[in-house]
Amino acid sequence: MKALVAVKRVIDYNVKVRVKADHTGVETANVKMSMNPFDEIAVEEALRLREAGTVEEVIAVSAGVPQCQETIRTALAMGADRGVLIQTEAELQPLAVAKLLKAVIEREQPEIVIIGKQAIDDDCNQTGQMLAALLGWPQATFASKLAISGRHAEVTREVDGGLETVAFDLPAIVTTDLRLNEPRYASLPNIMKAKKKPIAVTTPEELGVDVAPRLVTLKVEEPKKREGGVKVGSVAELVDKLKLEARVI
Amino acid sequence: MAVLVVAEHDGAALKPATLNAVAAAAEIARLAGSDVHVLVAGSGCAAVAEAAAKIAGVAKVRLADDAAYAHGLAENVAPLLVKLAPDYSHILAPATTAGKNLMPRVAALLDVMQISDISAVEAADTFVRPIYAGNALATVQSKDPIKVITVRGTAFPPVEAAGGSAAVEPVETTGSAGLTEFVRAELSKSERPELTSARVIISGGRGMQSGENFRLLESVADKLGAAVGASRAAVDAGFVPNDYQVGQTGKIVAPELYIAVGISGAIQHLAGMKDSKVIVAINKDEEAPIFQVADYGLVGDLFKVVPELDEELGKRLK
Asked: Which of B103, B119, B129, B249 best tests the A interface by mutation, with the highest count of A CBs <10 A?
């Protein structure tokens, strides 16, 4: 079977984001971009399935500007077999991305689709669930463990109270949580090899998907800054402050 | 057209996050001049519906009782919401793992965008939501005919759980989609308050060095009636289970007092706790970024400071 992973190009998680002076968004010019960390976990999980002989091929898909090719190359350097870029300059919201992925999935016919539970830019946490809805497939979100045997899968999910396990038949959508695995680094030879791996380019028009945004961003602002406080010299002073000044204990 | 809130519950009792979501719904309903309804979907959950009917400001409770809803599987509950949707202008749920799992599936089936984790209501179609781990706030306007929303609990003070007297109306259920089977839950058992509704939280980070050492925090937590949390680093290291994690991708908390012990203060952690009323940081590295957001910082070795704090609280909180 085939595995499909979706990878998003986002501002690197180490970058301190800055809101633009005109409040239309955040500064992205000359800012380091990387693969969404949750999507790296998705790529890693798919590669492990291939190494275990469960899947034969791993396809990495990204949607967005031409530079998303670099994000796909990262997945290829980690070990994915080939890439698909859905190229567009349009603003893409999760519903549109889910529709684009659905169109690619109908062409490629993967039996397992693994994507990050959320992107660290818009923090939406929607695309996997939406994709599962559109395909009428089972969804296993926030996965910390995935076991496939034949066409049956069991996923342990990280939920607010602890862990929950669900089971279903493939095809299905799995979204990754932090503890699913630790993604590998791409080795230099693999980075070189990745340059020769194929990336097919398509567009929303070619896939017949209307990507018009449903949400209009009216403005983006900085949150109120929290003022740093004081240093206290002793535990006794701390307890005094909490009791008498802050009155929280 | 009313505003519908999907109640979060465990089959026996309502989860407190429901009250925060009702608060957001009440604001929308006030702007739209409409009513707030609550949906209780579950199996054998009539008692939960009775509790929901008492929530202040709720006009009607809709009870969907079906074995298929027992574990809140999104594959089964989403079609129910799609069926109820024509009666509603907005459908809200708490931005908990349950709400985040369910609501995008509902939105996609309705062909609308979901609006994640709102922290303020500007108008019936305009909402504020944090992006980039809370380092920016986006004000977004929805052009969809029905708004499907998850609510950041810490941004909306809970409504009263008592005082209402709504009618409970059973609804026809949609049964099982036959896609997914619930296998088991391994839920942490604790006598302590839940992280997301605790008045005081004490959290440990990588500096705790082991799971064993979290006992130091537990002792303090017992004295303060606090919940115990952790940074991602402490969870990844296996010191404590995943449900302890506070941060961008863990739980978002805003207690009256947050005590961060051995936590350096990565932006991903700050994203989960910086709206706390009072923050205390205990760390041996005086350059740790956590001190930039702390109201009270104590530089020192936590293995000396925390037992001292424990003892001092024991003496002074009698």
From this structure: B249
Q: Which two tokens stand for residue A6?
A: 């979706």
Distance of CA A33 to the CA centre of its chain: 14
Angstrom distances, CA of residue B27 to CA of A15, B20, B90, B227: 35, 11, 12, 29
* Nearest Cβ partner for B108 among A130, A168, A234: A130
* Alpha-carbon span B298 to A238, nearest angstrom: 8
Nearest to A121 among B75, B131, B278 (CB): B131
| Closest chain B residue to A95, measured at CA | B113
Collect all residues with Cβ–Cβ distance below 8 Å to B304 and sequence separation of at least 6: none
When CB atoms are compared, the residue of B74, B279, B298 closest to A129 is: B74
For chain A, the three-class secondary structure string (H helix, E strand, C coil) is: CEEEEECCEEECCCCCCCECCCCCCECCCCCCEEECHHHHHHHHHHHHHHHCCCCCEEEEEEEECCCHHHHHHHHHHHCCCEEEEEECCCCCCHHHHHHHHHHHHHHHCCCEEEEECCCCCCCCCCHHHHHHHHHCCCEEEEEEEEEEECCEEEEEEEECCEEEEEEEECCEEEEECHHHCCCCCCCHHHHHHHCCCCEEEECHHHHCCCCCCCEEEEEEECCCCCCCCEECCCHHHHHHHHHHHCCCC
Nearest to A124 among B96, B111, B116 (CB): B116
Interface of B with A in 69-108 (CB under 8 A): 71, 73-75, 78, 96-98, 100-108
The model's pTM: 0.96
Tokens representing B313? Answer: 């609280």
Could A216 and B274 be called an inter-chain contact, meaning their C-beta atoms sit closer than 8 Å? no
Which residue, chain included where needed, has tokens 């706030």? B137
Q: Mutation test of the interface with chain A: which of B18, B97, B112, B279, choosing the one with the most A Cβ atoms within 10 A?
A: B97
Q: Does any CB of chain A come closer than 8 Å to the CB of residue B114?
A: yes
Residue B312 near chain A (CB below 8 Å):
yes
**Tokens representing A230?**
């004081």
Backbone angles phi and psi of B216, in degrees to 5: -60, -40
Q: Tell me the count of A-B CB pairs closer than 8 A.
A: 256
Q: What amino acid is encoded at B203 in this protein?
A: S
B152 pairs with which residues across the strands? Answer: none
pLDDT tens across the length of chain B (318 residues) = 999 999 999 999 999 999 999 999 999 999 999 999 999 999 999 999 999 999 999 999 999 999 999 999 999 999 999 999 999 999 999 999 999 999 999 999 999 999 999 999 999 999 999 999 999 999 999 999 999 999 999 999 999 999 999 999 999 999 999 999 999 999 988 889 999 999 999 999 999 999 999 999 999 999 999 999 999 999 999 999 999 999 998 999 999 999 999 999 999 999 999 999 999 999 999 999 999 999 999 999 999 999 999 999 999 987
Determine contact: B242 vs chain A, CB below 8 A: yes
Burial of A243 (0-12, 13-18, 19+ CB in 10 A): middle
Quote the minimal CA–CA distance from A66 to chain B in Å.
23
Question: ipTM, 2 decimals?
Answer: 0.96
